[in-house]
Structures are given as structure tokens and as C-alpha cells.
Amino acid sequence: MTPDFDIVIVGGGMVGACMAALLANEPTLSDARIALLEPHAPASPPDDELDIRVSAISRASERILTRAQAWTQVPSRYCCAYQAMTVWDAASQPDSASALHFSAAETGEPNLGYIVENRRLLWALLEAAPLRQRVTMLGAQLQNLEFADDCVRVTLSDQRTLRARLVIGADGAQSRSRELAGIDVGGWKYEQSAIVTHVRTEKPHRFTAWQRFTPAGPLAFLPLADGRSSIVWTNPSDQAKRLLELDEVAFARELTHASDRALGEATVAAPRAQFPLQLKAARSYTRPRFALIGDAAHAVHPLAGQGVNLGLMDAACLAQTFAEARAQGASVEALSEARVLRRYERWRKSENLLAMGLIDGLNRLFSNDNPALRTVRSFGFAAIERTPLAKRWLIQRALGVAGEAPRMVKEV
User: Fold this and answer.
1) Helices (H), ranges, 48-150
2) Are the CB atoms for 321 and 344 separated by under 8 Å?
3) Dihedrals φ, ψ of 183, to 5°?
């Protein structure tokens, strides 16, 4: 029997929607039937408010989203380009010699990235022309996957059963599709939680991302287009719970103290929320007729702002893997074979493990008050600040254009 779809993507978040748009926009896949499975009906975000969930979008992600025909659909008032970044340890000051200062001017780049509201970006992806024109939206939850030699039988929560040549799991860190595919996951909980909200500050953010490493965890102030800052404040989970129970004035007072007054007094300007943090890594990214992308394959600490960027890079690499296979004569059906999918896995797993190791190592290095490690941190920051090549390497990694990046990121 002919399958209902060639590719079914499970999860209609930013990474899953980007995957769908990239595949729909790929000329070599013009004959592929693509579906996106997402139980929550999308809705256009209201114009009068900015949600507290934002992401730092790298240069690589900007180019991927441009290829998906979504980037220009994000309203400029909800997208803030930042020109600089200042990173310092709790034992130093943001203007000290042992603080790190990164500037777009040093690299010839127009900026270092963007702070974008998640739901605006998701809506832009769902409204992207390739997705609207070529992707079938399935409004249901995934119930079951049955892998056969010739297809995957996909059972939905409304009792429909579909047949697909290939399933792509993009359904987040608690991935149901990963579980049904029989792929094990490793990792650990950090016993930390991130508090997110928006604040107004006494001093202007100057389109700069500010991050202070404290013994409790990192605190980031991310610039928003309306002059406010979005904060991501990591604390031990019990401390985060205590902070959320404070009234806004008391919370702002502790936040101001934790930030070392880098931007002066802070005032809470949005609701607050808390998210537990974890590291998760799938043992494998693929099996015949199945592939994982985004948080379903890897979930990381938010201190480097790389979560969604790693996921969008997964989507771009998988799309390129399929395009190259088709250019070499593979049929649409052959894209679900292990020999094709393993090319993607080899490519992304090594890059993601490197990023995860660096992020986890930084969190462990800085989230403590060990005197010896304080000295190491201070020396290391000062050495990097004095070494232009080291700073440039770090910026290139943060921009996502270093390493084995896909063509759509490299070709400008």
C-alpha cells in the first residue's frame, strides 16, 4: 500500500515547524508528502503583549530561518538585535580586566544575534509560505508508533492511523516519539531551576547581553526591543521556589543584588515563571524510518542560550542530508533507510556532544564558590580577554558558523 505521507514530523514547536518548512522548501523533495503533527492549534500572538519566553537566535539560526522563509515574518518590534555581550564572574566586576567583552564591531558582523519572543518566531514559521502550501497539519497527539519493514504506522489520539515512510521526532525533552521508537536517553537533573521574566532597569541595556556567573548559577539580562530586559536567573530549585514566593518588590531587590547592580535597580515588568533544568542526550539519534531533532535528541542548560539554536541546526543538517541523498539518485522512500539517516546522526551527534560538554562544564566550573576555581576562572577570563584569536573563536562558535555547519549557514 502507498503510505499516507512520506514524512511525518511529530511536534509543532519551533524546531519541528522549521523542519517542516525546510523540507517543504527543498527542491529535491518537491514530490515528498509532508505532515506536521501538533495537538495544540496555533494562534496568532496578540499585538499588545510580549511573552516571557524568549530565545537568543544566533547568526546560523537567522540564516536557517531565512531559508525556511520565516525570518522576515517576525515583526521587528518583537526582535532585538544585540551588539555586545559582557560576561563576568561574581568575584569580579563587569568593567574589570577579568571580565569578557564581546562586540560585533570586533568581528565585522552587524550584530551578535537576536532576542526573539518564542511564540512570534513559531507563528512566523507556521505562516511561512513553504509550510502553508505543502505541509498537512494534523491536530492530534501521538498515541503509538509501529515500525514495519515498509512503513511506520502512526496512531493518533483521535484513533486515526496513518502510514508514513519516515517519522521525525521533534516533540521535546520528554519525547513520546523517542520512547515509542525504543531509543534510550541518558543525562541528569541539575537540581537547578531557571526563573524567567522581563524587567525594567535603571540603566539602559545598550543592546548588550549581560551575564554574571554566581555561585548559585548564572544570571542573564537579555535586551528587548522595547527597552526592557528578559532575565534568565538560575538558582538551586529550593532557592528559586523561595524567590518566586516573594512579592515583586522583594524579588526585584534580590535580583538587583544578584546582578551586582550592573544595570542599576531592576523592576519586575512581567509575570514570573520557573523551569527545572536538566541535561538529556539520546543514545542514538536514528533508527530505520526514524530520526530525532532538537530537545528530543538533546536538552541542555540555558546558560549559553544554545538550546533552540542546536535544534534548528539539527533541522538544517537533516534537510541537507536528504537533499544530498536525492541529488545522488535516492528515492523518497530511500531517505528512511539507516544508511542515509546515519549520515545525519554522525554529523550532528558529534557537534551536539561537544556543545553539551562545554555548556555542562561551564555550569560546573562557575556554579560554586571554591577559592581555587575562582582563581582559575579569573585567570582564564583575563587570558581570553587579552587574546583576540580566542575571543574570535568563541564568537564564531556562539554565532554557529564555526564547525561542520550546513551549506545554508555557510553560504551567504
Assistant:
1) 59-67, 104-107, 118-126, 129-134
2) yes
3) -100, 125
Amino acid identity for residue 58 in this structure: S
For all residues of the chain together, what is the average pLDDT? Answer: 91
> Cα separation of 268 and 272, whole Å?
9
216 touches 277 (CB < 8 A): no
216 or 374: which leads in pLDDT:
216
* Entry field: residues in the chain: 412
In angstroms, rounded to a whole number, what is the distance separating the alpha carbons of residues 176 and 154? 12
Residue 307 belongs to what H/E stretch? helix 307-327
DSSP state, residue 303: G
Burial of 402 (0-12, 13-18, 19+ CB in 10 A): middle
Count of CB atoms within 10 A of residue 339's CB?
A: 10
* CA–CA gap between residue 208 and residue 258 (Å, rounded): 18
Question: How does pLDDT run across 269-316, given as a tens digit for each residue?
Answer: 999 999 999 999 999 999 999 999 999 999 988 876 788 999 999 999
Domains and CATH numbers, the chain: 5-77+119-187+279-375+404-410 (3.50.50.60)
pLDDT of 249 > 70? The answer is yes
24, 172 in Cβ contact below 8 A? no
Residues in CB range of 380: below 8 A, 6 or more apart: none
Closest CA to 142 of 152, 134, 154: 154
Give the per-residue pLDDT at 374: 67
Closest CA to 12 of 21, 4, 23, 25: 21
pLDDT at 318 over 80: yes
CB 93 within 8 A of CB 376: no
H/E stretch holding 406 reads none
pLDDT above 90: residue 15: yes
Question: Residue 198 CA to chain centroid, in angstroms?
Answer: 19
pTM of this prediction exceeds 0.85: yes
